[in-house]
Amino acid sequence: MKLFTQLALVTAIASTSSAFAMQSMDDAALSNATGQDGITILISLPSNNLKIDQIAVFDGDGTTGALESGAIVLGKNANGAGIAAGTAPTLGTGFSIQTNNSIGLVIDSSGGGASGATTGAAPILNIAVKLPSQFDVTTGDIGVAGASGVAGAYKVDANTTTGKGVVKILNSMTIGLGGASLNIQLGTPTAAQGAMIAANATITNGLSIANIGLIDGSTNYTGTLGVGNLVLTGGGAASASDLKLTANIDFGTAANLTTQLIKNPDGSAVTAGGMVIGLGNATAGSAKYNAYLQGVTLGDAASTLGDMRITGLDLTGAKVVIQGH
User: What does UniProt give as the signal peptide span (predicted)?
Assistant: First the structure.
């Protein structure tokens, strides 16, 4: 009797036209249930400030392969002399990123075809990166040092008995990138945006780099080539005080670089691949840049050139290639 009662209840529920009935869901409902419209990620830095004591890039074979290994060091050093194994960086300016809001990532995928068409011919993963209105990168003091250890376990060498430790070559600089955006496409990006990473953003009040200082560490001289602040504007921005930043970033083999007519300074063919940064806009002369250098000094503050202004800089078609060797 109990089993019969349960079967009757199940039959009644299945046959009713109430909310229990199975119904198809439209795209909007599915998107709310499954997130099929993509994924949004917000990255909030600790107290809006990411801090790193030190970043080191190691060169295992020196300048010719015969000299000892070295390191490019961004950030703090220990007692102004370097960082010994196991010693935490203590002095100098560290690397940091200062923001006023979260960093946004919007992630979508596509089969590559037009709406309603057969898809799958050129699938892509699209990642749109949006920076908040304040996004200041402080490089930290920049120096060079010897490196101890072996590949996979290098450390910045601060043995001041046999060497100088970290030698500062550039002052810490602050780079303002507030409001910039990047669009990254993986898979088959060529048809969609023409490059793997496309930077196309307007930076309010221009791109600024503060406290530039190239230090002369030769035997006889210790002066600095200094620029208090460099501001880059233009690029087709609606306001003359803003910067419209346009750049495409790709990664290619030596064959790719050769196809793009990129050669060595002596005209010989490249033998390694690299990262290729394309600058400017597609139309020549359509979006020129302007640069303002404030407080240019030679040697020290007493030897100043004052301010400098550069207008009408056309970078259309220019490429920067970064290779490892």
Answer: 1-21
